[in-house]
Amino acid sequence: MADIQQRLQALSTDYQNLQTELQNHVNSRQKLESQQQENKAVQKEFSGLDEDANIYKLVGPVLLKQEKTEAVLAVDGRLEYIEKEIKRVEKQIKDVEDKSDDVRAQIIQVQSEAQPQGQGPQSQAVA
What we know:
Strand order of the largest sheet: 1-2
Helix content: over 70%
Distance between the termini: 22 Å
Number of strands: 2
Largest sheet: 2 strands, antiparallel
């Protein structure tokens, strides 16, 4: 019985760790999606500007003038990178969810194996 308890405790710890890892990945995805929305808003603003419009980029405490084509390329590149990162994080989320499901199934299996053993002595004591 102690062996089953130890196994159950180890599986529970694994499950909790997986849930923490899952939450971290979900938080990362939310941050990336927020950045994606910000960059899409900038991209939309750029599309409404004239070619000769003044665009400034904040570098530390200084605003530097930037060509529109250069700024558009930077935002497009950033969006492309963010989209790849979102796909990578979503794959990690799916992997952790799958592992979590496996561990949950193992916990249920160990609990079901432990119940008949635990009920046996109790029913004999009653009789």
